[in-house]
Design goal:
The complex is a heterotrimer of chains A (392), B (283) and C (158). Chain A is an alpha+beta fold and 392 residues long. Helices cover 30% and strands 23% of the residues of chain A. In chain A, a hairpin with a 6-residue loop joins β10 and β11. Classes of the chains: A alpha+beta (392), B alpha/beta (283), C alpha+beta (158). Chains A and B meet through β6, β7, β13, β14 and β15 of A and loops of B.
Chain lengths: 392, 283, 158
Amino acid sequence: MDRDALDGAARVLTGGELDALFTALTDRGLTVVGPMVRDGAVVYDRLASACELPEGWSDEQGPGHYRVHHTGGPARFGYTVGPHSWKQFLFPPERRLWRAERAGAGFQVLAEDGETPRYAFVGVRACEFAAIAIQDRVFLGGRYVDPDYRARRERVFLVAVNCGQAGATCFCASVGTGPRVTAGYDLLLSELLEGERHDFLIEAGSERGREVLDTLPTRPAGPADHAAAERATARAAEQLGRTVELEGLKDLLQRSHDSPRWDDVAARCLTCGNCTQVCPTCFCTSVEDTTDLSGTTAERVRRWDSCFSVDFSYLHGGSVRRSGKARYRQWLTHKFAGWVDQFGTTGCVGCGRCVTWCPAGIDITAELAALRAEGVPPGEGVEDDVDGSHDA
Amino acid sequence: MLQTASAAAAVDPMAIRRFTVGRIRRETRDTVTLELHPVDGLGLPFAPGQFTMLYPFGAGEVPISISGDAARPETLVHTVRAVGAATRAICALRPGEMLGVRGPFGRGWPVVEAEGSDVLVAAGGIGLAPLRPALYALLAGRERYGSITLLYGARTPTDLLYTRELERWRGRFDLDVEVTVDRGDGGWHGNVGVVTRLMDRARFDPAHTVALMCGPEIMMRFTVRELERVGVTDDRVYLSMERNMRCGVGLCGHCQFGSRFVCLDGPVFRYDEVRPAIGIQEL
Amino acid sequence: MMSTDPMTLELAGQPFLRGLSPSHLAELAACATVISFPAGQHIFREGDPAASFFILRRGRVALQLDVPGRGVTTIQTVGEGDVLGWSWLFPPYRWQFDATAMDLTRAVALDADCLRRTMEADHELGYLLMRRFAQTISDRLQATRLQMLDVYGHASNR
């Protein structure tokens, strides 16, 4: 639904009435999840009401650095993204697939039954929409589909929020995913904070969204409201400091397997896998088969995994990617090159989480720029004199 | 709620089907061939070169290439070598016990594309198991192929698989079989040396040959070199690759080899397509 | 004028010597005889003087080493068209392994002394033969390396 068609349909909700949205969602049997401050970070969890939103909180991010501050003020979304992403709700970190029980010489399988959760995500940023769309391709777009992801995804109600500020590690614009939310939402909020006002411009992006919007105590939006929303996202766009040049990047990475830059980053990378845990598109999992102590009941559990773990590529007594260098190369190359071959888009949405949450402060935008700057294609030496001295 | 998983398998690729163990043949000290019968009575149609994920109760799950005859899908045949917890548990199964199965998955051997050509099958060690269904298919459609040659190498004579079948194949006039071992023993009167040396004796027209290879990666690299030396170009050479697999359906990420998922795009690959990737260390 | 003596013709038919001119083949023929070994016969033993160079016309030969504690071990088998041995090329001109005929084996045997003198006298022929030996030795080395890697063994069995 394009902006013009919705212009007449956009409404304004005052900051004080935001809880009406929460009530409307819970009345429809949805479990509302969204940002809250806990353990020194903005995390995503169940929200009982709008009061639990991080009102007056903001964050400060950098490579290997994250702090939240309470600055006061009425802003409910005055921060960017924290260590959590929405993938934990659509694609849970741990999920039992089935159980089995011994029966005579064989066994029976007990399928999992249980209600699929019906979530409403409140506060989904533009980069996160792009991440959900990317995971949709991974889990729903291939030959084999993840039925649990599909069930959760079909039920989820998405309330987006336009960013009014950019984090120091964000680079959504240069990968084409933000800062403005354009599509895929049920409802879209833009927080308007100028002078004394605290309102939300609220737009519907679907039938479901319109149906909820119609129940909220809103007034029609006017040009001034739209202009204020534009100014907020423009401010976010201006603040973006990092960039990634996507042009030719896939080919560059697929030619750079022997680049000395990998040794450079490997000297810093701890292969802790934080980046893969916080990344909203990383999807690798492992499967664990266990039994109870008596050996009569077994279960299979699927867990998030990381290509950084040393036995991720275990084969025949050793791992194919034994060195940290090979594993870092795998992750970055997959994210920006392999992903394009596999799913048609790059796997990065520019959220900056991997930069913020890397204990070594490794910045992928800097790593990619360094690879590009190297210039000399691998396999070509630099001419030298016979006696070894190199005339510059 | 108790329900069998087979109906759900169609929509859930992680749901298993149960198979009962029938006949077991011990091939070598650490390798067995199992005949498996589906509990739900529905066969497992497959293409030669495909694999299934096998689940011994509570012990893990492993990808194993199907080693039986695709013309007899009512019985699932697997040759398994005990190298880890799951495979050891599979090799310890008795007749009547059950195994969980998911699949078949993957892309198989180019049995149809090879029609009209000579076919050279090069197998190393347990690599003969994924190639056996291809041999069955080639022999079933014998008149559609030129010469068919099997070159098979193993570590020692006691490591040879399917010895009775090898002997039957050697007796055929429409199939050439050459076997070699890396190290002979007192009773061995056959060839000793690497499988690549057997190529000197093979009769095939390099310009019209399709080669199918499976074995340790190094053996396959050496074999490709020999094939190229005699004039078989790498766009007519196919290999079956292995990587760590946790799902078999392209969703867990483990089996990636460059941009390819070995479980979806392979395990059979045409060599020219993967050659650059094979040359990259720790890819 | 091309010699039509049977030995030259015999050598001309050997793949190992393919491409040599008739005059070169005639030079080699002067050093050559045809020799047969029944199945099971030792062709030479490790440590024996390497007096001949063999090109196998038919049959198979096992190259063996006697390993204390393991007995006589076949390290490689060679067959029709293969050459047997190059220890005659370099001092101390002694065989480095045993060779035993596995089947009835027929070979062209070239006398090592004669061959060394001929190659010294005719460097062009010497070069052409050395190139062929280098190829054979290279192939055997590659094959041996592959065997040495024990690729079929599994990590847990090592």
